[in-house]
Specification:
With 239 residues, the chain is an alpha+beta fold. It is built from five helices and eight strands.
């Protein structure tokens, strides 16, 4: 880790981009992603993850119970709403509606090596190993004139249609902590998918916590919107 400490003062603008560990589909060109709506508060229990390895997931209507009416209205209108997840393991959280069935959405997001198709800040992704639980990928990022390398281990639950990711502890990562989850639920007569997203990122002691939270929260909506467009286009959309 020590070799990467000088990068922290440049990382603020890119925190949100690092947060999205899971990938999206191949895509056709489209207009630039629109900015997402402001955050909406929800009950604390609403952003806790519920999928368990090997368990079937409930339908979206059940999952959405307990969320604030304002958040649900914004989700229906915009297809994306940021949540207040500060009391949970993933302080950055969101709900996203994908215009693809649950199975296809899962298959697209599980293709972790394709993230740079909709995340231009990633200069390269290399799959180091395909493990039974999911791929181990090495990401190369360029921020200003500094290159950042880190490895993510993905955990794919094919039955519950959920994806999780965390840093590989065996690698000299340029980040202190990255973890996240996508939980996917059938929505709107199973022709669409509700995605529940959560992530946590710590770049290290060189960046104040309040600045890290502020910057990452401001950038994540744009990155999630790009992910949504990529999935909706079956991987053809490009930023």
């Amino acid at each position: 880790m020590s070799a990467h400490l000088p990068i922290y003062r440049w990382l603020g603008p890119a925190l949100a981009l690092l947060a999205l560990g899971a990938a999206a589909p191949h895509g056709a060109r489209a207009e630039a992603p629109a900015a997402a709506e402001a955050h909406a508060a929800v009950a604390p229990q609403a952003v806790k993850t519920t999928a368990v390895m090997g368990s079937a997931a409930p339908r979206a209507e059940v999952v959405l119970t307990g969320y604030a009416a304002q958040a649900l209205e914004r989700l229906r209108k915009k297809g994306l709403v940021m949540l207040d997840g500060t009391q949970n393991e993933h302080p950055i959280a969101a709900l996203v509606i994908f215009k693809q069935p649950r199975e296809k959405t899962f298959r697209l997001l599980a293709q972790s090596e394709r993230q740079n198709e909709y995340r231009p800040e990633i200069t390269s992704i290399r799959t180091i190993e395909r493990r039974p639980e999911g791929p181990l990928d090495e990401h190369q990022l360029k921020i200003m004139f500094v290159k950042v390398a880190y490895r993510l281990q993905f955990l794919l639950d094919y039955e519950a249609r959920s994806l999780r990711w965390t840093l590989d502890p065996q690698f000299d990562n340029g980040l202190e902590h990255v973890a996240g989850v996508w939980e996917l639920y059938e929505y709107s007569d199973a022709q669409q998918t509700l995605g529940r997203f959560g992530t946590a990122v710590r770049v290290g002691k060189g960046l104040p916590r309040w600045l890290q939270d502020s910057v990452s929260r401001s950038k994540v909506p744009d990155t999630l919107e790009a992910t949504r467009r990529w999935v909706d286009s079956s991987g053809r959309w490009r930023p």
